[in-house]
Write a structure and sequence with these properties.
The structure holds 2 protein chains of 2 kinds.
Chain A (H helix, E strand, L loop, with lengths): L10 H4 L1 H9 L13 H9 L1 E3 L2 E3 L7 H12 L3 E6 L5 H13 L5 E3 L6 H4 L1 E3 L1 H7 L6 E3 L1 H8 L2 E5 L6 H13 L1 E4 L4 E4 L5 E7 L10 H5 L1 E6 L5 H19 L8 H16 L18 H18 L6 H12 L3 H14 L6 H13 L2
Parallel strand pairs in A: 3-10, 3-11, 4-7, 7-10
Antiparallel strand pairs in A: 1-2, 5-6, 8-9
Chain B lengths: L5 E5 L4 H14 L3 E7 L6 H5 L7 E7 L6 E6 L4 H11 L3 E6 L2 H11 L10 H11 L3 H11 L4 H19 L6 H20 L7 E6 H9 L5 H6 L5 E7 L2 H6 L10 H12 L6 H15 L6 H17 L7 H12 L8 H8 L15 H12 L11 E6 L9 H4 L1 H15 L4 E4 L9 E6 L3 H10 L6 H15 L3 H13 L3 H15 L5 H17 L10 H19 L4 H20 L5 H13 L5 H13 L5 H11 L6 H14 L1 H5 L2 H12 L3 H14 L5 H15 L3 H9 L4 H16 L1
Parallel strand pairs in B: 1-6, 2-5, 2-6
Antiparallel strand pairs in B: 3-4, 3-7, 8-10, 9-10
Helix pairs in contact in B: 1-3, 1-12, 5-6, 7-9, 8-9, 13-14, 13-15, 13-16, 14-15, 19-21, 21-22, 21-23, 22-23, 22-24, 24-25, 24-26, 25-26, 25-27, 26-28, 27-28, 28-30, 29-32, 30-33, 32-34, 34-35
The chains are: A alpha/beta, B alpha/beta.
Chain lengths: 362, 751
């Protein structure tokens, strides 16, 4: 099949079965433009059982936050997901659109170079010059298309866009229509149209959003996983999903490995050990859950390609080194201190990892 | 088949319950209303009906003997019990409490050794509820199921089956179960009593927690014998104002208490026949609060919040948003995702600051009566508020007013507040005076809390009026005092309260104690207390003259004890220095204390070599300050103390003691520096090195400004530029000098 060659499938294709199952079992009223009822969306995201089959949880964390997000979209309001890097903002937004519209691909990626045209519409200039402005010569933005079809568009990393580009959303969100003066038309949004934007609180180079824009969003702040168990659960689920798609030729990381990585990440993130007894120096990086996931996937790739297929301490050490030490000077001291003061004293089952890490820091 | 009255199972503090109860009463028009509540406190019911009575209120019963156990029955306007009582009053029918008498309750709780809440206090029941209700907890479940249910039958059936179900799960397992059985048997007994008084079953409505309905239907009434064998303790009871804040902060008491202001919102809406508007009111109130406190919130945002709350509750399958939905919507739309942004507004909207009021003279203990009378007399009523207010008092006679009473208003207020302080009633907190020794001014922060009311009621055990109770407390303290400074603090409190008899009593207690041996520290503390009182003079209208001989006695004893007490190590010396300072201050402010004996003692301490050198130095400093040591004597003393052969730590200890009293007094004394300079001149190199070590230590805690001034003095003596000296003194040590000094330290200690 052609699909298997695709590097990363969109959520609605990855979880096609579950979505179909939920739609077929639907009992509650479905809002206009939606494929399933809000409650089914919640089941899709938070997991549950339908017709005796298990729906895997996509977001592990406070169910209430997911409910608020879904309820926001029911009321036609735009949703803004805020959080530190790696708190599953984009992940949640992708799955919300996948469940609600069966289409998570109407995405505008916010960058410093994003222009207003990418939010609204631009032109095929060859055609524009040859034929003059016409609907055919128009290149519609994902948001434009979402308005036409009454579905949900996603804007990733909204706060990385320049302020004037961000503010282009204001009129779209309050008027719920786009005017095209070149053609003398106005395109009203169909029922079901909304926007899910995500925004980072901690990255550098972020443009603060205007109050006017913030007012047009319902804001949900996604927290970092509240405890070690939750984080391990998230990492394990995601790593196994990733492994399926990537053909890594390696076994899934052992429970113990995941726990070690999560422990190290949580401790460095919080600046103290899990039992709260010892303070430590946090590195400059964010050390998000997402990084822990990619670290483990990376280690699996190392193990699969160059090792015996199961993650060895050396594979993990290389990944940890890269994840923790982002700024050579400051982070490497923090990392070395952690190795010597915490990890070395953790007893025998940490000894292998400690030795492997120290070798890299000689 | 026995007959049952009409039961109405409720959830305590439930607006919908209160509303449905009124509907039910309207429909049935009973002749008697029986309510779950302490049956010996029926006498308080008429007071609840007084037109000036404003809930929240609480019925408080407490044991007459120490330790005080108390039991509390809070009522809000939306309590079904309270509305039932009001309805009965409005329709001229009788209402009665039928639960165990408070005296039995308190006896039972004394036996178990814990406080009761007057309600099935067991948290186990509510944990069970939480478990059954699922993720949202039982509060939200109750709210959805019952509070938003406009159908009377649905409420009644829902509450009843909920109670029955819960009962099934916990029956026999709960640690409170035996008590529950006793209570229900008692209530049944009261119901039977009503039957025997000629009331027909259908003429009686029984209002009780839904948990008890099943029990009342099946249990056998308590026999007369059983009833007589119940344990009892003597109790008092009173009606007291309560606050929403306290309602919300009590754990374990039934449901619906976490957000009293929100529940009263629900109640108002039910009364206005507009159920379901609470969402709008709640969110608008938060918006209004935010605006009033400087955060702009638009109506559009409130509208969005309402819509979000509605769709949130729909996801869970409910029609009307519950508090949880409203709060989440407020956080998302009004707080922009952050609870921190709106938490004050939420607290205000959910909990609120309301306090109940009782009309004057209504079922109060006599001490409460006295409290409110004095509050009015002293024009302090506006301070009876939940927010803290400042009160500045000028204790002197106000000569611009006519009446004697008005002239000493502030003094009387001070007495009043001090008496409450002595009783442990937390109404006012005395702030430390801003003006040193200003005996005529006091600053208080006054804040009234329902706790203060409870403390006041507890104080009733000590006496019937505030004055009597305070007197009793002070006497008790005086009797218990085992150290003279404790007795002295009682005397001081008695003076602050303007109570001469207590003062006299404590004074004789103190005299009794003073015969016993006491340490210098205790004596000095006592002298300080007494001296403070004497400084007030007659401003507090208490004759302090009897204290003079006592103080004199203490003072002489201290003078005699001082030299002996100075044989001590350095840590004890700190205590002695404090005592010396207090005694000196006491002597200076009370001229009737003969200075000679004090100065004699100081001279002794200053001159003797066998005492702790800190104390000797300090004594010298006091003498110096009082002009009792001339330059010549000081110069001699400096030489003697710092002479070769004296161990460095002793020398420096003396100088430290000398400098501890008053840096400025030392600095200003040119002769000291002259003699220090002379001393240094007289030393040979080896001796100089030794002296350097301890002088350096002695000057360590002088500030750089003070060092500047020393430099000025020395510069003058050495006839060199002041600035150069100062520079040298203040500059940090060079490495070489440091090394040299460290070398000296070694050298010194090797000796």
């Amino acid at each position: 099949m052609a699909q298997t060659k695709v590097q990363r499938l969109p959520a609605e294709q990855l979880f096609q079965e579950e979505i179909d199952l939920l739609i077929s079992a639907e009992k509650d009223p479905i809002p206009a433009g939606w494929k399933m009822s809000p409650r089914s969306v919640r089941t899709y995201i938070c997991g549950g059982k339908v017709k005796g089959k298990i729906i895997t949880p996509k977001y592990i964390g406070q169910e209430r936050l997911v409910e608020i997000a879904i309820a926001t979209l029911v009321t036609d309001r735009a949703l803004l997901l805020i959080g530190e890097p790696g708190t599953a903002k984009s992940w949640l937004s992708e799955h919300l659109t996948a469940a609600i519209n069966g289409d998570s691909t109407k995405v505008v990626q916010g960058t410093a170079g994003t222009t207003e045209e990418q939010i609204r519409y631009s032109w095929n200039y060859a055609m524009l010059i040859a034929q003059g402005p016409s609907l055919e010569a128009m290149l519609k933005s994902p948001i434009y298309r979402a308005m036409e079809s009454g579905s949900i568009a996603r804007v990733e990393e909204l706060s990385r866009c320049a302020s004037e580009v961000q503010d282009a959303l204001i009129s779209i969100l309050s008027e719920k229509r786009i005017s095209v003066p070149e053609l003398g038309i106005e395109v009203p949004a169909q029922k079901g149209f909304s926007i899910i934007a995500t925004s980072n609180t901690r990255d550098k180079g972020v443009n603060e959003m205007s109050a006017a824009l913030k007012r047009r969003f319902n804001i949900v702040v996604l927290p970092a996983p509240s405890n070690l168990e939750a984080e391990i659960e998230i990492v394990r689920t995601r790593v196994s999903q990733l492994a399926q798609g990537l053909d890594l030729n390696a076994g899934l990381p052992a429970e113990e490995v995941v726990e070690k990585v999560c422990t190290i990440f949580r401790e460095l993130r919080a600046g103290q050990t899990l039992d709260g007894k010892q303070k430590l120096k946090p590195p400059t990086g964010v050390l998000s859950t997402a990084e822990a996931i990619s670290l483990l996937a990376n280690s699996m790739a190392l193990a699969g390609s160059f090792g015996n297929g199961s993650i060895a301490d050396e594979d993990l050490a290389a990944g940890l080194q890269g994840a923790v030490v982002k700024d050579e000077e400051k982070d490497s001291t923090a990392w070395k201190e952690y190795l010597e003061n915490i990890m070395r004293k953790r007893g025998s089952h940490w000894a292998g990892l400690y030795r492997a890490c120290r070798e890299l820091n000689q | 088949m026995r007959e049952d009255p009409v039961y109405f199972g409720i959830r305590h503090l439930s607006p919908a319950g209160a509303w449905h109860l009124r509907k039910l009463l309207d429909e049935i028009q009973p002749r008697l209303l029986l309510i779950e509540g302490p049956s010996d406190l029926n006498g308080l019911l008429p007071d609840l009906l007084h037109p000036e009575t404003q809930p929240p209120l609480a019925i408080l019963a407490y044991t007459q003997e120490i330790p005080v156990h108390s039991i509390l029955y809070p009522f809000a306007a939306y309590s079904p019990e309270y509305q039932g009582i009001l309805w009965a009053g409005e329709h001229g029918i009788e209402s009665r409490f039928i639960d165990l008498p408070s005296e039995v309750f308190l006896a039972l709780s004394q036996k178990r050794g814990k406080e009761t809440d007057g309600e099935e206090s067991s948290t186990a029941v509510y944990r069970e509820l939480d478990r059954q209700a699922g993720g949202d907890g039982h509060e939200t479940f109750w709210e959805h199921l019952l509070e938003h249910n406009p159908s009377f039958d649905a409420y009644r059936k829902g509450a009843a089956s909920f109670g029955a179900q819960l009962r099934q799960e916990t029956a026999g397992l709960d640690s409170d179960w035996p008590e529950t059985v006793i209570r229900e048997a008692y209530m049944r007994y009261e119901i039977e009593q009503a039957f025997s008084q000629g009331y027909q079953p259908n003429e009686i409505v029984v209002v009780t927690g839904s948990y008890h309905v099943e029990g009342l239907k099946s249990i056998d009434p308590m026999t007369e014998e059983e009833r007589k064998s119940l344990p009892r303790v003597p109790t008092n009871s009173t009606l007291m104002p309560y606050s929403f804040y306290r309602l919300s902060s009590r754990s374990g008491y039934g449901a619906g208490n976490k957000a009293p202001a929100y529940y009263s919102l629900l109640w108002e809406e039910l009364c206005g026949e507009q159920p379901g508007l609470a969402a709008e009111s709640y969110l608008s109130r938060i918006a209004v609060w935010q605006r009033a406190h400087g955060t702009p919130v638009s109506s559009a945002e409130v509208i969005e919040a309402v819509r979000l709350a509605e769709s949130l509750s729909k996801i869970r399958g409910w029609e009307i948003p519950a508090l949880q939905d409203l709060r989440d919507a407020a956080i998302t739309c009004l707080g922009h995702g952050e609870f921190a942004g709106i938490h004050l507004a939420v607290a205000d909207t959910e909990i609120g600051t309301e306090i109940g009021t009782l009309p004057e003279g209504v079922s109060r203990t006599s001490i409460q009566e006295d409290f409110y009378r004095q509050l009015k007399e002293l024009k302090l009523e506006k301070y009876r508020a939940l927010s803290a207010q400042d009160l500045s008092l000028d204790l002197r006679e106000n000569r611009t007013v006519k009446s004697q009473k008005a002239a000493f208003l502030d003094l009387e207020r001070s007495f009043f507040l001090h008496r409450l302080r002595v009783l442990g009633v937390s109404l006012g907190a005395l702030q430390p005076g801003t003006q040193e020794n200003a005996t005529w001014s006091e600053k208080w922060i006054v804040r009234w809390t329902p706790e203060a009311e409870i403390e006041l009621v507890e104080a009733a055990l000590s006496g019937d009026t505030i004055l009597y109770a305070a007197n009793f407390k002070l006497r008790e303290r005086a009797e218990k005092a085992s150290r003279i400074d404790e007795a002295a603090s009682v005397i001081e409190d008695a003076f602050l309260c303007g109570m001469s008899s207590a003062a006299n009593y404590a004074t004789s207690a103190l005299q009794g104690l003073a015969v016993e041996a006491a340490s210098l520290e205790e004596l000095a503390l006592t002298a300080q207390h007494l001296s403070t009182i004497l400084q007030y003079g007659n401003i507090r209208q208490v004759d302090s003259a009897p204290l003079k001989p006592v103080l004199e006695q203490i003072y002489f004893r201290s003078c005699l004890l001082l030299p002996g007490s100075c044989v001590c190590d350095n840590s004890a010396a700190k205590v002695i220095l404090g005592a010396m300072e207090r005694l000196n201050a006491a002597q200076l402010s009370n001229s009737f204390l003969d200075p000679e004996s004090w100065l004699d003692a100081l001279h002794q301490v200053a001159g003797r070599d066998d005492l702790n050198t800190h104390t000797s130095g300090y004594a010298a400093a006091i003498l110096l300050e009082r002009g009792q040591m001339d330059s010549q004597a000081l110069a001699q003393e400096v030489h003697r103390r710092l002479s070769p052969g004296t161990p460095a730590d002793l020398g420096s200890g003396w100088f430290e003691g000398l400098s501890m009293k008053n840096h400025y007094a030392l600095i200003a004394r040119q002769s000291l520096w002259q003699s220090l300079s002379d001393y240094l001149d007289s030393l040979d190199d080896e001796e100089f090195k030794r002296a350097l070590v301890f002088l350096r230590r002695a000057f360590a805690d002088f500030s750089s400004r003070e060092r500047d001034e020393i430099a000025e003095n020395l510069g003058e003596i050495w006839k060199i530029n002041t600035q150069q000296v100062s520079e040298v003194i203040n500059s940090p040590l060079t490495g070489e000098a440091k090394e040299m000094l460290e070398g000296l330290d070694d050298f010194d200690f090797d000796l």
